[in-house]
Specification:
By secondary structure, the chain is of the alpha+beta class. Helices cover 26% and strands 43% of the residues. The strands form two sheets. A three-stranded antiparallel beta sheet has the order 1-6-5. A three-stranded antiparallel beta sheet has the order 2-3-4.
């Protein structure tokens, strides 16, 4: 049995870009404004707490992005920047250093 494993690592800057691309092109997941902070938490699934400052009145809002939404926006970002992701693979998010990882496993298991 042959199994292939790949791990893609995204810095917080890349995660911020992925959040902005997803927000602009796909689905509104946080209040309108500029992301000024991101904190990743893993307990046991990974979540992102983002801090957004409103462009209109300067108020700060904290929003938690769940692991399913994080997975969707990471996969969307991969498609956006043309990183191929096999549809029939097992995908798993993790926290790696200050960033986030996407583990991809393919093969007959």
């Amino acid at each position: 049995m042959v199994i292939e494993n790949r791990v893609l690592e995204f810095s917080l800057h890349e995660l911020k870009t992925a959040l902005e691309v997803f927000q602009e092109e796909k689905l509104s997941i946080y209040p309108t404004g500029k992301i000024i902070g991101i904190a990743l938490h893993e307990n046991p699934s990974i979540t992102a707490k983002i801090l957004v400052i409103s462009a209109t009145d300067g108020t700060e809002t904290e929003t938690v992005i769940d692991s399913n939404t994080l997975a969707a926006l990471i996969l969307y970002f991969c498609h956006h920047v043309k990183i191929p992701i096999p549809r029939s693979s097992k995908k798993e998010l993790g926290k790696i250093g200050d960033g986030i990882s996407l583990s991809i496993t393919m093969g007959n298991n």
